[in-house]
Specification:
This protein has one helix and 22 strands. By secondary structure, it is mainly beta. The strands form two sheets. Strands 1, 2, 3, 4, 5, 6, 7, 8, 9, 10, 11 and 12 form a twelve-stranded antiparallel sheet that branches. Strands 13, 14, 15, 16, 17, 18, 19, 20, 21 and 22 form a ten-stranded antiparallel sheet that branches.
Length: 327
Amino acid sequence: MPNFIQRVMHPDWYHGQNKQPPFFEGWYFKLIDASEQHRYAVIPGIFLSNDPEKHHAFIQVLDGMTGASAYFRFPAEEFSAAENDFDVKIGANRFRRDGIHLQLEGELLALKGDLTFENTVPYPVTWSAPGIMGPFGWLTFMECYHGVVSLDHQINGSLTLDGQSIDFNGGRGYIEKDWGESFPSAWIWTQSNHFEQVGTCLTASIAVIPFKVLKFPGYIVSLWHEQQLYCFATYTGAKVEKLTVTDTSVEWVLRTRQHRLEMRATRAQGGLLHEPNRQEMHRRVEETLRATVDVRLSEVNSGRELFSGTGRNAGLEVQGDVGLKVK
């Protein structure tokens, strides 16, 4: 069985071996076809409650165009994961970094088929920053951990939705994950890898982080562009110049000593997903895959623009008040 160091250095692996409840772990697959007319989020995972009767595995599906969602529940015994690889099975369904196999049949929808992922872009992992959480990834008492498995990749294959075939050849995808005891009490999250320049990806989140006796808004924002990663995070010393949330948009500006990142996400109608707390998976969070996010990256000293673009098919969640006061 992999030791603690090996697991930290592989955020994509399953982290629930020998974990006591409460515990959850889930992977998020974003699937967009080449026409951008079919957008899906598929979320497999496991939930362990203090109440053993609530233990179960699950696969959530969100139709990003219609907002329809479905929650497929499985006995916990139908969940299995490789010890030293990202290879998860739930019933007849299988999930890996290089593809998925779906065999879902329910009252709300039936989704079946195989997709393969090519040219995946893993988030850089180093000893000082083992993934997107940076040095916080080494801590053992965090409420929730976050990882990015692939910032961007090409999709091939097809899925059948309620008997209708959907061609995903030439589509684009993204994979991330979360695990721990519970989701934060409040957060904002947005992501897009559909910019004019193929391969560019933005993933950004801020959440209320419980830390011993304190709570603070922690943020992780990464822009992958032209094979370079620009990271703006609590642990890098990045400063928030602006964070404004309205019914129609989220505006967020951060800077480091070298760079400034400006983001404006336009909110759109979405669908409801189940998210975990310590007792249960409950339906409470709206997510859209129809948002757009305007992004501008520039140098602080010179003001020179390094990147400017609009991300399409953006995922966006706004849940609660993160309590960040910008001076």
